[in-house]
Specification:
Elements: H1 9-17, H2 36-42, E1 61-65, H3 67-77, H4 106-116, E2 128-130, E3 133-135, H5 148-163, E4 170-175, E5 179-183, E6 188-189, H6 196-201, E7 206-210, H7 213-230, E8 236-241, H8 255-274, E9 280-282, H9 285-290, H10 294-297, H11 308-321, H12 335-341, H13 343-350, H14 357-368, H15 379-385
Parallel strand pairs: 1-4, 4-8, 8-9
Antiparallel strand pairs: 2-3, 5-6, 5-7
Helix pairs in contact: 3-11, 4-5, 4-7, 7-8, 12-13
């Protein structure tokens, strides 16, 4: 797969001796503040990055992938950067408005890009009837079942949503899982798991596929090729791995082991697949969160969701590393808190009257004295954002 690369002996020693980041314990200087040990001890580790390309304040972003893509979107918006993936016309009225378009496995990301950019036909045979309504398992599991006509219209809206990738100058891809469900009837990989009832109703139709390193490198390269063919000629792609662990595994293994396999496979595939592309780069958001002091990065209530304060540091490091910079003018603002505290604003965002709660707050909420945080804060918001 072209993953192997070699460095001459003298150059390898120069790499070690010439970099202050190369040693875990600082070599002969165990107190070196740049060592990995010192950075972990001091808090959140923001790894040294040498970008292939630069970003700018006038770049236009589209984020695709797992729920961590939604985290990053919010912190791009706080810096007033244009984010085309933020607004979706069939939004979730209870959580992140665009959570239904989360894409967890590389195969499901590739599917949507093929259907939207390469205009390959959507496999309607993969839609599943359930109690008089129809499920689209290419969306997130929480996307509701609807009458067939509405499901088809929503699917057209999804295609138009992902068509916005054509207009982005920066595509951020966050990879989540290697466990993927295959629909043999429609011959397509799914984004969400079929229900137990579906697997019983359609014997032999669904099976779990645990994709390996080689498969994921191939899929990621296909993603880059589709984007490079149909998006802007100047598009740059940043690929990363979501630090959010698997909430469950269908393999029967300990979820800790299954998660380690999933993330390590995607982590290796992400960097290796990007190596041959001048406009594709790997960014270590996964390392920044998972190697750091866990009490500073994960919600202690579930050890699953990444704290908003940690995402803020990672987003700032990402933008500064790539030259885009940008300050957060109102660090007191948190999107999900504001939406939960103001249900009418949440509905307005779902109805696409505003791209985000932050846009509403800047335009109206501040002068109206809108609360930034509800007194009866929901447990779901507590988990997603942090205390």
């Amino acid at each position: 797969m072209g993953a192997r690369y070699e460095i001459s002996g003298p150059a390898a020693w120069q790499n070690l001796l010439g970099s202050k980041w190369s040693r875990w314990n600082g070599g002969g200087h165990p107190g070196d503040p740049e060592s990995a040990h010192a950075r972990i001890t001091n808090g959140i580790v923001l790894p040294d990055v040498t970008p292939k390309f630069r970003l700018a304040a006038d770049d236009v972003f589209f984020c695709i992938g797992s729920c961590f893509a939604r985290n990053l979107e919010e912190h791009l918006i706080y810096r007033r950067l244009p984010v085309l993936s933020r607004s979706v016309p069939f939004g979730d009225r209870t959580a992140r408005p665009n959570g239904a378009v989360n894409k967890y496995a590389p195969a499901s990301i590739l599917n949507e890009l093929r259907w939207a950019l390469a205009e390959q036909p959507f496999p309607e045979a993969s839609l599943i009837e359930e109690d008089g309504a129809w499920r689209d398992l290419h969306l997130a599991a929480r996307a509701p079942a609807l009458p067939l006509a509405q499901v088809r219209e929503r699917r057209a809206q999804v295609r138009r949503y992902f068509e916005r990738v054509r207009d982005a100058s920066v595509l951020i891809v966050t990879l989540g899982l290697v466990e993927t469900w295959y629909d043999a009837h429609a011959d397509v990989m799914l984004n969400a798991a079929p229900t137990p009832g579906m697997t019983r109703r359609f014997p032999g139709r669904f099976r779990l596929v645990v994709t390996d390193y080689t498969e994921n490198v191939t899929i990621l390269r296909e993603i880059y090729d589709v984007v490079n063919r149909f998006a802007r000629r100047s598009v740059r792609i940043v690929v990363s791995v979501s630090p959010v662990p698997m909430s469950e595994t269908f393999t029967g293994r300990d979820v800790v082991i299954a998660n380690a396999y999933s993330k390590s496979t995607l982590r290796a595939a992400a960097e290796d697949s990007a190596r041959a592309y001048a406009n594709v780069d790997y960014y270590p958001s996964y390392e920044a969160i998972t190697v750091s002091n866990r009490s500073l990065t994960y919600n202690a209530g579930d050890d699953l969701h990444v704290l908003d304060a940690a995402v803020q540091l990672v987003a700032a490091h990402f933008l500064q590393s790539y030259g885009a910079g940008g300050d957060v003018q109102h660090p007191e603002f948190v999107e999900l808190d504001y939406l939960y505290a103001n249900p009418d604003v949440h509905q307005a965002v779902v109805d696409q009257q505003f791209p985000s709660g932050y846009d509403h707050w800047l335009a109206h909420g501040r002068t109206e004295g809108r609360p930034l945080r509800a007194a009866d804060r929901a447990l779901e918001v507590e988990r997603l954002v942090g205390p």
